[in-house]
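hey can u check if this looks right to u? its 167 residues, i copy pasted from the old doc so theres a chance i mangled smth
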Amino acid sequence: MKTWAGVVYVAFVVDTFSRRIVGWSAATVKETVFVLDALEMALWQRDREQHPVRPGELIHHSDAGSQYTSFRLADHLDAAGIAASIGSVGDAYDNALMESTIGLFKTELIKPRRPWKTLSDVELATTEYVDWYNHRRLHGEIGHVPPVEYENNHYLATTKSQVTPNV
């Protein structure tokens, strides 16, 4: 997106199961480090909530942008036990969930509040948006509840089923 100070790029890491934005980053350059920051936030978030990433259970799906096809990101994903899946060039359907999330971000936050002045303004607004998106925005794909509520319900049900044996 354009700001008075230049172009700002935003990367998200979205959990497909819950539609929750678990990591994000904003930067003035489209380089691997800004994607790694979003991934690190997602991994930190899951560890913080005591739902760490288990090697071999996750797939990081992205488009074919150079920041996502770098050896540095591939090495980082491999070290975390996350499989990489890159969509075909020019095919938005390969990455439909992310395209939808970014479309909502632009429609619900970026376009209504422009013009944007600086990277810091975008970062602050994105922090607020992600909190709203995860804790208050209703998502039809997951039963018209916010992603955090959906996850909490899932973990509660999983915990109960592990404690209560079937008879």
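The chain has a mean pLDDT of 91.
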